[in-house]
Structures are given as structure tokens and as C-alpha cells.
Amino acid sequence: MTAVMTRADCVARDQRDPLRALRARFDLPDGIIYLDGNSLGARPRAALARAQEVVSREWGQDLIKSWNTAGWFDLPKRLGDRLAPLIGAKAGEVVVTDTTSLNLFKALAAALQLQAEGAGAARRTIVTERSNFPTDIYMAEGLTRWLDRGYRVRLVDSIEEIPAAVDDDCAVLMLTHVNYRTGYQHDMAALSRHAHAAGALAVWDLAHSAGAVPVDLHAAGADFAVGCTYKYLNGGPGAPAFIWVPQRHQAAFSHPLTGWWSHAQPFAMSHGFAAADGIGRALCGTQPVLSLALVECGLEVFEETTMAAIREKSLALTDLFIELVESTCRKHPLGLVTPRDHARRGSQASFTHPHGYAVMAALIRRGVIGDYREPEIMRFGFTPLYTSFADVWDAVAILKDILDREAYDTRAERSAVT
Ligand SMILES: *Cc1c(COP(=O)(O)O)cnc(C)c1O
Question: Would you say 133 is a known binding-site residue?
């Protein structure tokens, strides 16, 4: 329990906050409290000038020369090296490229291939949670269907069932580190260790972890990882994702999307495919440079602080939010689905409400932007780089007002993107 109980206490806390200066690195409109950085991060101030530079000078003036002179060609690796420290990866182990869905496909294919060439050749299942983000499951099912070699995806219904499901038929344990709905954070080290002891490989999705919680892939013994840059890393809408292949697996890393960017000599235009050495083999084809370039503006901000400082504030913000919601909205049917245990919590707080969609729509109309996920879940993401303690106080005051007055419309039409 924190001692904060008045808005003035929150303001005082903001004044002591070592991260408070970083809010000025983002352009957020006045009059809104943005609690959706877990879905689309806010725009770094630097992004506008960078976009202008890429469009006007690099593309407009220097045209095709920019692949070399502006470093476009190396951008996936350069950004990967810049992102690496945030997830406990080394230089030369990460590329920013493609989408999370595609990178997961590559990582899973490579993991199955590693098993097929080794002691795990007879193993046939990819184990994951039914509550995983659907695209992860869709991609795994798509891959197993197309491989047509008897692989299948095994879905478990609870966290407790994971260890036993990683049996002698399990080739890969594929998990999302922080659950997108509940904010539950897995113990990556323990589960990776368990997978290895059982003869399986561990593939992690860091979509809700990178930039949100400290991650140390090497210390955790993970095998492969993927994640988004447009969520907590503030890379921009639809910005390319990342994939991590540790040095120890790079020589054996092979995936089916062998486009020319994963070739050892893309401009040799030769007939046979030969994979690039190192992390370059995780690429596929030409990247969306405009979008890719902006990822750097998000990463730059992280270099002014540490994940430890971000984590400390994230837990303080989520603790405060949970405490204020539970104390001031006690008479309403709200249910916390995010773990209270710090070790198991990501950087969000989710509450169920029977009219969750309508309440969230009312919140958004009043300037408190969170989002809604089926079933009944109101999701509030906390991004310590630009969210203040006073924001938390104000958001809860507005939530309480909406609930007390039942100022939400349960018949309103739903938008395509919730
Ligand atoms: C956001 C998210 C994705 C998004 O995948 P895209 O290919 O970028 O659309 C995938 N997996 C998880 C777990 C996510 O949270």
C-alpha cells in the first residue's frame, strides 16, 4: 500500500520523479490522459523532424543513393543493436524487421528445424496458452499446417498446466512473456529452464515486455524472441517488429522466408540461396524505410534512463491505480485481473466490468484513453516515460464519476478497432 491519498500527494510525487523530464520528449495532445501506450505508444517529439528528413532529403534529394549514404540498408541491424540492451541481448543478435507475426513464424520454423536436426527429431508439439494473443496461435497453427509433417499446436488452459504439457513430445514452448489482456508476467528463466530440462526449446514473445519490464534474454536462457516496436517502444503505428537470435543459435538458424535480404550477397543476384552469416539471415525482403527510421526516435528516449528506473515507476503507477480504483469505486462490479504480485505483473492494470466496453467508450470521450479487450476487460497501460502520478489520480476520478452516474451507453455501436 502506498501512502498517497490526495491529488496534491500525486503532484508532489511527480515533482520527485526522476523520469519526469522525459515526458517533454513526447508530443501528447492537451487534455488527454493516455493509458494506451501498450497498444500504440505516443509520438516522440523527434519523430516529426526525422520523418521530414527521410521524406524530404533522404528520399526527395538523395533518392536511391540513400540506401548507402543514409544507411537505409543497415537500418534493421543498427536499430537492432540499439534495442538489444533493453532485452538483455548482445550486439549483432537483433534485427528490426517485418511484423511480430512474421518474426514469430521465422523463429518457430527455425526452432522446429533445430529440433528436427538433433535429439528432438521425434517431437511434434508446439505448446502455448489458449489465452495467448491470437495471432501467435494463428501463426503457429499456420506453420504446422503448411509443414505437414505431423506437427501440432497444443493449447493449455492455465499457467499451472504448462510444466506438464512440456513433455517428451514438446518441441517448442512458445509463450508471450506478459499477457496482453491480464498483464500476467511469466517467469521466463524458470520456464525456459524447464523447457530445456524437458528437451524443448523456449520461444518468447516480448510484445508487452520490451520497454515495459526489464528483460534479460541471455540470463533467462531463452532460445529465440520476437516483439513489437509500436507499443512500449514508441516506434509509430505499424512500425516493424524485432527478432532476437542469440549467437549460439545463429549458425543453425534457418527459416523458410528466404528472401534476398537474408542472402549472404543480396546484390550478387545469384541463383542459389546462401544464408547470410549472423543475424542478417533473419531478414526477408525490403523494409518500409519511412516507418523503420522512426523506430530510432523511440529507442533514443530509452537511452536517457534505465529499465530499472522505468520498472520502479511502472510498479508505483500500477499500484496507485489499483489502490485508487479499489478504494474509490468499491461499490461497483469491478474485478482486478492483473496480478498484485509485482514479480508477476507487467506494466498494465486490467479490470473487468459487465459493461466494460461502454465504460471504456465513456472514458475515452472524457479524455482517458485506455482500451477494451474481450471479454469485459478494460485495459489501462502505464508508460512511465510520459505518464504521471497526477494522471493516475485524474483518470480514476473520471472513472469513478462515470460509474457513479452510470454515464455510459450500453447500446453504443462498436468501432472496428477497440
Ligand atoms: C501486439 C501483439 C502482436 C502483434 O503482431 P503484429 O504482427 O505486429 O500485428 C503479436 N503478438 C502479441 C503477443 C502482441 O501483443
Answer: yes
Q: What is the pTM of this model?
A: 0.97
Read off the C-alpha cell for 141: 497453427
Cα–ligand 1 centroid distance for 95 (angstroms): 16
Establish whether residue 207 lines the binding site of ligand 1, counting it when its CB lies within 6 angstroms of any ligand atom: yes
What is the grid cell recorded at 281? 539471415
Q: Does the beta carbon of 100 lie inside 6 Å of ligand 1?
A: yes
Q: Which residues pair with 227 in a beta bridge?
A: 242
> Does any ligand 1 atom lie closer than 6 A to the CB of residue 208?
yes
> 101 CA to middle of ligand 1, Å?
6
ω before 256 within 30° of 0 (cis)?
no
Torsional sign, CA 317, 322, 323, 325: positive
Residue whose CA is at the smallest distance from ligand 1 atom 14: 207
Residue type, 403: L
Kind of pairing, strands 348-352 and 377-381?
A: antiparallel
Check whether 320 has a pLDDT greater than 70.
yes
Quote the cell numbers at residue 163: 510444466
pLDDT of residue 3: 55
Task: Answer whether residue 412 shows pLDDT above 90.
Answer: no
Q: For residues 47-59, give the mean pLDDT.
A: 98
Question: What is d(CA 345, CA 178) in angstroms, rounded to the nearest whole number?
Answer: 8
What CA–CA distance (Å, rounded) separates 224 from 118?
A: 17
pLDDT higher than threshold 70 for residue 4: no
Ramachandran area for residue 150 (φ above 0: left; ψ -120 to 50: alpha; else beta): left
pLDDT digits (tens, 9 = 90+) for 222-275: 999 999 999 999 999 999 999 999 999 999 999 999 999 999 999 999 999 999
Q: What is the mean pLDDT of residues 316-328?
A: 98
Provide long-range contacts, Cβ within 8 A and 24+ apart, for 268-275. none
Report which of 39, 29, 38, 55 is spatially closest to residue 417, judged by C-alpha positions.
39
Tell how far the Cα of 82 is from the centroid of ligand 1, in angstroms.
21
The C-alpha cell 543497415 sits at 74
Tell me which residues are annotated as active site: 133, 205, 230-231, 379
**Residue 328 CB–ligand 1 contact under 6 Å:** no
The interaxial angle of helices 100-116 and 134-147, nearest 10 deg, is 40
Say yes or no to pLDDT of 5 above 90. no
Given a contact cutoff of 8 angstroms between Cβ atoms, the answer to whether 257 and 284 are in contact is: yes
In the sheet that 377-381 helps form, which strands lie side by side, from edge to edge?
335-336, 348-352, 377-381, 371-373
